Amino acid sequence: MSGKSKLLKAVLLGDGGVGKSSLMNRFVSNKFDSQSFHTIGVEFLNKDVVVDDEQYTMQIWDTAGQERFKSLRTPFYRGADCCLLTFAVDNLQSFRNLSMWRKEFLYYADIQDGVAFPFVVIGNKIDTEGRQVSNEDARQWCAANGNVPYFETSAKDSTNVELAFLAAVRRLKEVEEQLDVRPTHGNTVDLSRAAKSKSSCC
Ligand SMILES: Nc1nc2c(ncn2[C@@H]2O[C@H](COP(=O)(O)OP(=O)(O)OP(=O)(O)O)[C@@H](O)[C@H]2O)c(=O)[nH]1
Known about the structure:
Elements: E1 6-14, H1 20-29, E2 42-51, E3 54-63, H2 70-73, E4 82-88, H3 92-96, H4 98-108, E5 119-124, H5 135-144, E6 150-152, H6 161-179, H7 191-201
Parallel strand pairs: 1-3, 1-4, 4-5, 5-6
Antiparallel strand pairs: 2-3
Residues 14, 16-22, 33-34, 36, 38-39, 64-66, 124-125, 127-128, 154-156 line the site of guanosine-5'-triphosphate (GTP).
């Protein structure tokens, strides 16, 4: 295993109340709060992970999903290495809004080639009754938007939470390999630049 940890910025997006803060807290601190408050603006936490023998420090940016906080969250999209688009499986509207979230992210992160960017989609709250979004519908959306990896999670009982966050690191590695770009100074490569240069040259 190489000694130096690579810093990786991951942004969590999705409607208010789908469980973004809960997913981050489950992943970083293995805690769950059933009375979690709405996020105002953004918060971030770091977590050290090892993926395929490489060390990463994931800096996870948890954003406020409510519309009124848009101007507070969007400045933090720039420089993201990956993005986790989140909805709740018991909330159809939060699934319908995925395209809006993807578009908002690409616009404010200033990324032109969205297909070349490492997204992961999370359908959270699978422990709840009354599912409104099928696994198949979610997979279809992911297939239509660049074969995005899809995970169904529960921040409440921990199901698949670690798997989903680590998939974002794996997706980033895959995209780097496809673009054949390598980090130049210890950090991960700036994929927003890589995606742009790819789209402008080919
Ligand atoms: N049953 C269940 N409840 C969850 C789960 N994840 C989050 N919740 C609950 O859903 C509510 C909203 O969770 P948050 O993590 O605050 O949601 P958020 O997406 O960060 O919301 P904003 O900060 O407004 O964007 C809280 O009451 C959580 O306890 C889950 O996997 N299962």
